[in-house]
Amino acid sequence: MFFLIAFIAGRLASIAQRGLWLLEVILHIGAHRTGTTSLQRALQQNQHNLKKNGVAFWGPRQTRGGRFSGLLRATDADDAETKRLIGRNRGVISLECDRLAKQGTRRLIVSEENILGSMRHNLRTSLLYPGLPTRLARFADLFGSKLTRVGLSIRPYDRYWASALAFTMPMGVPAPVEGDLDRLVTQPRSWRQVISDVARVFPGVEIAVWDFERLIGRPQAQYRVLTGGNGRIQPSDAHHNASAPREALRELLLARGDADGARAIAPGSGRYMPFKAHHIDALNARYLEDLAWLRTTSAARVNFVEEASELPAFATRIAGRGRT
Fold it and tell me: What fold characterizes domain 2-157+194-239+296-313?
């Protein structure tokens, strides 16, 4: 069956290469805790209108429903089953992309933050998306020249790590102790390195980066950044997958018998923030370095958008800061 799929995919690919139909792929890769679910839900709700304009959308319903079953596996999973699944994923996705193109679809938006890795793995290793080039290479091979743009949202490290912890603790991740927090503050990987990994693995592909804190709760604006200013979706003010507030985390830890972890969380219903002032100063300094690099980078295909006010000027390409 696999060889039949591969044969048909190859035949269709040769037809596409002769220019009978074309499909552009835009890949939204996250990051986690930057409003990815809200954007995905908004795109899902707008699917009918998107389709009328020649745009298809794949979100978690498709990517986690089996279509990316091998592609999203850990990079150290090199067993025969993983290879079989990846081969099957490639065959099915190639057929599906060619089917969309034949139907007149001009653009496919794929949104899946787990392409980067997982929050649990980040916390377990105290690293920001380790092994990323290997993960991304699977998708470079998968989409090839169809891929024209990759979208990524970033946020300050203190809020990113705090949100990841607050979201995963109810799933069984233990409350952090001081040593855990110190390792997260001093871990060597930065958003700049993540973006550089993307640039290396996808040469010639445009990279759209936006500051989540500036576009929070605005999936319509995020969509326009992702697509280079092309198209609109109906606005949505809904927030999804919010991390647990402090009081809920305190109750959770007490129920687990972790009294020390519960005491480390300040009472109240506000946002969870485990880092001390000196931690936050160090993390903010690193984030400011990332922003300075994004604003001045000489990489013309890395386009950074901070403010929603920059969006009206967009035409066919992203007019973000840092363009030379």
Answer: Rossmann fold (3.40.50)
